[in-house]
Model the fold of this input.
Amino acid sequence: MRKNQKGVSIISIILIIFIILVGIFIYSSIQEPQTGYYENTYEPISNSENEAIRYYYNQLSKPAKIMYETILNNKEALKIGNGKIKFTDEVEKSIEEEGGSIENNYFQTAWDAISLDNLDLFYVDTQNLSLSTKTTSILGYKSYEFTLEPKEGNTYYNSSFTNKEEVENALQQVNDIADEIINNATGSTYDKVKYAHDWIVENVEYDNDNTANNDNIYGTFVNKKVVCEGYAESFKYLLDKMNIPCVLVYGDGYNNEGRRESHAWNYVKMDDENWYAVDTTWDDPIYLGSIDKLTNPKKYEYFLRGSNSFNKNHINDGDVSGTGQDFKYPELAENDYLR
Done:
């Protein structure tokens, strides 16, 4: 009889554990309804013929790549302002495969790369992004669930946007203006690069008043008033549309008074297969204190420059947000571009 009692006891324990696990699953389903969630399986982004389209994505670790891909595949969650993006367990698997830790800055690194590669997320305020990590421990085994959501009480939007309709209207405005610009950019690669450079220099004003969207492409094309990030991002946006390799570069510049300040500019790959630097901000005569935008000789002082001249007052820094991820920039040609 004792053996039978022991057998019944073991079966009972197994049944109890099973019931508990089912209860946990049901409870989780009730507590976290899928409505409002977006999720994609791991689908690697194919490389474009233009190497600069996903230039920073290609430098990420696998966990960060999966996060990058999932966010881009679920832009609608960002557009509606409060949609949550739940990452698949491929993130956790890839972290284990590379021997990493959930404490690593995978998400911040992924978002840095997204921001550098994709200029059409201007409506998102990075400060409103929050990555929640849910830890489940069953019989000593821990699993993790990562979800991107807006910080409590906020939406993803920056201060200029309040709903999806406004976001989509803004995206359409930017796209239409950019298309009109590039439709007038004809001729050789040099001619197109120069046209994009000249349009920005001649039509955009440097913002000293902290205007909304002064650091993105909406501020450039619609408001026409930005700081260096807006200049550089819009230049890349136009060249991306023309399929000319161009990347954003962050670092420091020494201004005319010798002061070091945070700055942003671009590197462009020309037909000779070499990369050259372009700084549309510093080529803007109004930024330099001149009112003559059309004839000022300094308009091309920082146009298609090589490292020998450009690096005298520009120092790039690949650690965009201080996470320790040191993005590598293209190596510049030593000499300036000769047409």
Observations:
- Residues 2-31 form the longest helix (30 residues).
- The chain is about 35% helix and 15% strand.
- Residues 25 and 31 are 10 Å apart (CA to CA).
- The radius of gyration is 25 Å.
